[in-house]
Write a structure and sequence with these properties.
single chain; Lipocalin; Thrombin, subunit H; 3 domains; five-stranded mixed sheet; 2 helices; 32 strands; globular
């Protein structure tokens, strides 16, 4: 028995280490931006502390996902008529799979008043990966599952419709045997669960939280859901324009909703200290703390506090201890207490990004957080109330992709390259 226990303990420890060495979805293993990476470099440049950099063809804002010795991203042409999944060798940065998945005759049109580089790409949703399989999503252009060893297509869907208007942005997630996709478009809004093995629809829930008089642009959203456990029951929490809703992940039945107003929700929710932290992005109550144990419309009964001043409308926030850390699109950083929503930092320091905007969601490693703007600046900031800038770095190209961090390395995608940033030994 002692020997069996020892072997079991060793196996559990090994699996835990292996899990910590993966970055399977948008914002990491728990979807909260936290990383177990250690000894990440404070400083870097295009040549300093770069183990490798690899050019990624065409254009994409999806973040890298990592499993084993592979790093996957998606990319698409500027016109959106071709969509690809690209896998790189984690050690060398060499491209090992470059798969053309979809050739789109009529790409979903983006707002003609916005150039692509101003607002979105046709490959912005981040893939989700697990042992042997990677799931990639391009909104209405298509969703696919590939074998990670061979790059072979296992299944795909091209029949899921909506008018994205400014491109897709919501990333897929997996839970149990299901793959969850979010379509909050200009015309229709819904969440759909697919059987991850076959791609077949399990359930679909339409949702809109505005009156018919409200225009389609105010109905759009880009958020990625999060599965949480409340009273031993899982809930799929999915922000949208106007409201955040919790669903039974097996059936899609609505458990509760909070109507916070606003539009274009893009921040991924967080859960901790008995509260669900969600955001209305543009307008509405902004950042909202909700007790997630209610039923029905909980807006008047379960909202503990709301925080608006300086709240981000693009990049997700970080929950560190009893504090929420965030940077808005202008580079203004804030530290907010989770108990009452009060600002804890006396000043709101603005990161010196020289007019860069912050779209990428920050990550946390070893009590430091890493924030990147779309002009190539990368900041390392203390995860305390002072929000001290520990280092400011610069790469030739900017980003709207959120980084990944595993082992001793930071994986950072710019508009042109994917970097493995690591202290040189």
């Amino acid at each position: 028995m002692p020997m069996r226990f020892s072997l079991l303990a060793s196996l559990i420890a090994a699996l835990s280490v292996f899990a910590d060495d993966n970055w399977p979805e948008f914002r990491g293993p728990k979807g909260d931006g936290h990383s177990n990476a250690t000894k990440l470099p404070l400083t870097w440049s295009d040549t300093q502390n770069v183990r490798w950099k690899t050019a990624i063809h065409d254009l994409g804002w999806s973040s890298p996902v990592i499993w084993g010795n592979q790093v996957w991203v998606t990319t698409a042409t500027k016109k959106g008529d071709k969509c690809y999944a690209v896998a790189l060798d984690r050690d060398s940065g060499k491209i090992i799979h470059d798969v053309l998945l979809f050739e789109v005759n009529r790409p979903d049109p983006k707002d003609p008043f916005h150039e692509w580089e101003k607002f979105n790409s046709y490959a912005s949703p981040t893939p989700v990966i697990e042992e042997g399989r990677v799931y990639v999503h391009f909104g209405v252009s298509g969703t696919a599952c590939l074998d990670t060893a061979t790059g072979k297509l296992l299944w795909k869907r091209t029949d899921l419709e909506c008018n994205h208007h400014r491109g897709a942005g919501s990333s897929p997630i997996i839970y149990g045997d299901m793959l969850y996709l979010t379509f909050d478009g200009f015309d229709v809004q819904y969440v759909i669960a697919l059987n991850k093995k076959t791609g077949e629809t399990v359930w679909k829930r339409d949702r809109t939280y505005h009156s018919p008089q409200v225009g389609g642009d105010a109905r759009k959203a880009y958020s990625t859901p999060l599965v949480i456990t409340v009273n031993d029951k899982p809930l799929l929490v999915s922000p949208s324009a106007g409201a955040t809703v919790a669903y039974d992940p097996k059936t899609g039945e609505e458990a509760w909703r909070v109507v916070h107003g606003g539009m274009n929700a893009s921040l991924r929710p967080l859960f901790g200290h008995g509260k669900l932290f969600t955001s209305s992005s543009d307008g509405g109550m902004k950042l909202v703390a909700v007790r997630p144990d209610g039923t029905g419309n909980v807006t008047k009964t379960h909202v503990d506090w709301a925080y608006a001043k300086g709240a981000p409308n693009r990049s997700s926030f970080l929950l560190v201890g009893d504090r929420l850390l965030m940077v808005n699109s202008l580079g203004i950083t804030s530290c907010v207490g989770v108990k009452d929503g009060k600002q804890l930092n006396e000043e709101k320091p603005r990161l010196d990004s020289k007019a860069g905007e912050f779209w990428a969601s920050p990550i946390l490693a070893e009590d430091k957080w890493y924030a990147f703007d779309d002009k190539g600046h990368g900041f390392v900031i203390s995860a305390n109330e002072k929000l001290d800038v520990l280092a400011a770095n610069k790469l030739p190209a900017g980003t709207r992709s959120s980084p990944a961090a595993v082992g001793n390395a930071l994986y950072h995608r710019t508009f042109t390259h994917l970097y493995r940033i690591e202290e040189k030994k």
